[in-house]
Design goal:
- α3 runs parallel beside α7.
- 30% of the residues are buried.
- The protein has a domain of 135 residues.
- By secondary structure, it is mainly α.
Length: 236
């Protein structure tokens, strides 16, 4: 029975949860060049008329939001990365003359230029980007559940359950790499509540107003906001 389980899943057409976490990353969201990729992705993305396919795409996008939020928070609290070969030579000479302990002078310069370009593009701070991602995550997650719950066979319930477990783990990781001054604590709490509600197969109606508000923001902003700064079922 255990040996036949993967064959049953494959035959039913239900993807493995790992496939929902393979969204191509491309250019980092804290790069000034991300505006180009964001435009390209939006230009080429087609919304399926099939609720199942659309739901799986929305779930993948929600997962990508979490991955990007985690990466951005890591970058925000990490020291500038040294430029290979050049920075070790520069830092050694500079530290010998001044008695300082600078490890990445050129990396720090590039990091400053990068943040300056982001400001010129009007994309806001890293915290602004993470907040937009968390809002979009909730909206995409809720939309995905509504679309997948439109099916009456409940064949996607195990997939949703496994995915929400992984999402909860990533939310914990985002919280661990964030700081109080980032201002994302309340958004993480809302995302945690929604994800745990789905994981426990409970209704989203009680928190629908928050998700609905975020859905409105994400519909206008979504990944573009980050770049610049439907059914019954037990999950519903």
């Amino acid at each position: 029975m255990v040996a036949l389980a993967p064959l049953t899943v494959g035959a039913s057409g239900v993807p493995n949860v790992d496939s929902l976490w393979n969204w191509p990353q491309g250019v980092s969201m804290d790069s000034p060049l991300y505006v180009i990729q964001s435009w390209w992705d939006g230009h080429n993305r087609k919304i399926s008329s099939d609720p199942t396919k659309r739901g799986l795409d929305e779930l993948s996008q929600a997962n990508a939001d979490l991955l990007n939020a985690y990466i951005l928070m890591q970058h925000a609290h990490a020291a500038p990365q040294p430029v290979a070969v050049i920075d070790p030579l520069l830092s050694t000479t500079y530290n010998a003359i001044t008695g300082s302990n600078v490890k990445a002078p050129l990396g720090s310069l590039f990091s400053g230029i990068n943040h300056g370009l982001l400001s010129l593009e009007g994309r806001g701070s890293t915290s602004d980007l993470v907040r937009a991602l968390l809002q979009d995550y909730r909206a995409k997650q809720a939309a995905a559940v509504r679309d997948l719950d439109a099916r009456t066979d409940n064949v996607y319930d195990p997939l949703l359950s496994s995915n929400t477990t992984r999402e909860a783990d990533f939310l914990t990781q985002v919280r661990q790499v964030s700081a109080p001054e980032d201002g994302v604590a309340s958004l993480l709490a809302d995302a945690d509540l929604q994800t745990s509600t789905l994981a426990n197969h409970k209704s989203l109606n009680g928190i629908g107003s928050g998700a609905g508000a975020d859905h409105g923001k994400a519909s206008n902003n979504g990944h573009g906001q980050a770049a610049q700064g439907q059914g019954n079922g037990k999950h519903k």
